[in-house]
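Now for today's protein:

——
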Amino acid sequence: MIAVIKTGGKQYKVAVGQNLKIEKIDAQVGAVLKFPTLLTAEAEEVNLGKPYLGEIVEGRVLEQGKGKKISVVKFKNKTRYKRNVGHRQPFTKVEITKIV
C-alpha cells in the first residue's frame, strides 16, 4: 500500500518501511508523528481525499540534521562586489511505520 502525505508545504509518496527526509519538524528522536493523507492506493483501488482522507500515516523520527552546504554567490561585474554566503537546510529523517 502506498500513500501521499503533505508536510512542510510538499507532498511525498510513501510506503511502509520507507525512510525519507522532510522539512524540519520540532520533535525528539524516537517520537511518533502523524501525517494527514491526501491519497491511498492498494493494487487497483485508489482513494482520493477532498482535500484529506480520514486515514493517518504514522512515522518515527530517526534523526534531526542539516543537509549539504550550498554556496549562495552574489557578484556584480566591474564594481568590485562579491558576496558569498553558505546555507545548510535543516531536515528531519522519518521512517514510515504504518498506514492506518
